[in-house]
Write a sequence for this structure.
């Protein structure tokens, strides 16, 4: 599997963002899931919660470590991936096909400050 996907934007905290209209789907990158190892638990926000760019919105626990999730964008959580409650390992199986939360963007221009695929690959290869 590719380490990145064209068309997504990436944060330095290893989250990806896919924009669909005024909504951002947020997940973690292949780099992040492989660093974490087998994910065993996802602590996620509720729909309706506000998230701020750079602020923690949840956490993932794995056999190796616990890692906080930092939102790459600001806005209101419109949906949480309910599948992750019983099957958090889906993130390991398909990190780019498994979104964690959907956020209604309060400032769509924030997405522009995130890295594109080639910049993120360069960032993770340092």
């Amino acid at each position: 599997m590719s380490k990145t996907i064209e068309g997504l934007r990436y944060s330095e905290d290893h989250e990806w963002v896919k924009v669909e209209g005024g909504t951002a789907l947020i997940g973690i990158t292949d780099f992040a899931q492989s660093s974490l190892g087998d994910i065993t638990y996802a602590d996620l926000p509720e729909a309706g919660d506000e998230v701020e760019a750079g602020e923690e919105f949840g956490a993932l626990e794995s056999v190796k470590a616990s890692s906080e999730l930092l939102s790459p964008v600001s806005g209101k959580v419109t949906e949480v991936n309910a599948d992750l409650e019983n099957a958090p390992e889906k993130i390991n199986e398909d990190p780019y096909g498994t979104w964690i939360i959907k956020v209604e963007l309060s400032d769509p221009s924030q997405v522009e400050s995130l890295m594109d695929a080639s910049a993120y690959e360069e960032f993770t290869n340092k």
